[in-house]
User: Which sequence fits this backbone?
């Protein structure tokens, strides 16, 4: 099979021997005959496309090996958990693990694997524990400030532009409700 490179001979060679540029091992195996520049070459010379694919394969294998050695589950079991959670963090339902894979959340006392969480949610679970999460829920459902100072709401604006914060009463909020902020992706 002849690789078409557009390069006939190396003019720098004094002996007149033609030298061919390196060829991607995967392109050669797949029968791709057009020339693609080589971007890697430590173990096997690869073009950019095949170098990225090889990197992704190596990353997936390393992740499966880490999950197996750390948590005792296979890579397939990890992805089954991920699919069961619709590909999102079990807690926030925002993080998908596209940039950084979701962590395997487990109880450090018992070793029970609970599911897959993003880093911030996994850290929150570890810091608060079950009792702390119950306290956080009670805090949100019955804020202590309401018992002490009543229902006062802060209408925030952008302070960096010199705008002021305004405290409004519950009656003003009932008459003119504020729009609820939308939570953006993590």
Assistant:
């Amino acid at each position: 099979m002849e690789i078409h490179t557009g390069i006939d001979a190396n003019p720098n060679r004094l002996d007149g021997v033609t030298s061919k540029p390196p060829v991607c091992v995967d392109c050669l195996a797949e029968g791709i005959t057009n020339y693609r520049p080589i971007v890697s070459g430590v173990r096997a010379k690869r073009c950019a496309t095949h170098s990225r694919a090889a990197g992704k394969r190596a990353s997936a294998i390393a992740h499966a090996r880490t999950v197996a050695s750390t948590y005792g589950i296979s890579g397939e079991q990890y992805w089954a958990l991920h699919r069961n959670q619709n590909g999102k963090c079990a807690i926030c339902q925002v993080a998908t693990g596209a940039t950084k894979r979701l962590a395997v959340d487990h109880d450090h006392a018992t070793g029970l694997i609970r599911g897959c969480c993003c880093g911030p949610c996994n850290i929150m679970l570890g810091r608060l524990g079950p009792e702390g999460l119950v306290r956080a829920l009670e805090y949100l459902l019955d804020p202590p400030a309401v018992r002490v100072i009543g229902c006062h709401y802060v209408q925030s604006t952008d302070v960096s532009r010199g705008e002021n914060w305004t405290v409004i009463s519950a009656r003003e909020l009932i008459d003119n409700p504020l729009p609820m902020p939308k939570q953006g992706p993590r």
In short: The first strand starts at residue 38 and ends at 40. Strands lie at 38-40, 46-47, 103-106, 113-117, 152-155, 166-169. The chain has three domains: 1-71, 73-139, 148-175.
